[in-house]
Amino acid sequence: MPAFCVALAEWALLTRIMRSSMLNVLRQDYVTTARSNGAPERQVIDRHVRRNALLPVISTGGVAVGMLMSGVVVIESVFNINGIGSAAADAMASVDIPVAVGFAVFTCAVTVVASLVVDLLYAFADPRVRLY
Question: pLDDT for 73-89, tens place per residue?
Answer without folding.
Answer: 888 888 888 888 888 88
